[in-house]
Model the fold of this input.
Amino acid sequence: MTQRLTLTSLPLFPLQAVLFPGGILALRVFEVRYLDMVRKCQQAGAPFGVVCLHSGDEVRRAGAPQEQFHGVGTLASIEQLSSPQPGLLTLLGRGSQRFRIVRSSLLAHGLWVADVEQLADDLPVPIPEDLRKTATALAQVLTTLRQRHPDDARAITPTSAQLQDCGWVANRWCELLPVPLALKQQLMELDNPLVRLELVGDVLERTGIAL
Done:
């Protein structure tokens, strides 16, 4: 069994969002604690960790309760970074590997850092025949998204190989579906991509979205 890699003092960005491996992250960064962190990550070519909040707010306010977040997140690598005005950064990142927090601490200036254990990537699993409709429907939704919102970072053109992979199709659906964050977090944490896609298929059938 391959030993899992660990990262120490990984900077965290708690958000009201769940980032999936392969997913796109678009952020407007203006808090001092994150401006400094993002610049340092960009200079070092290093990732930061995205974790989903289950209480507290993204923006720190005086007297507000401390942020609390889930113990499993996703590494984000910066692909584009610009500064349209002083004190503001716009960032486009991409999710890579999932991780589990071993321990975390809050620094004096409000930045969370954590020692984390990286989780294994999804194994490539072909989509079974009874779930092929989820891939077909996803391709149709992405085509519509490209036509209506060509500037949307999610409006990608999938490859044939991607549309045949359980994990990739499940993750893209999880990003698009209007379901509670708690459910998205549970789906992201699942180690079995086939089970994740089966659950996505159940949600699609219950809601009647695109099927």
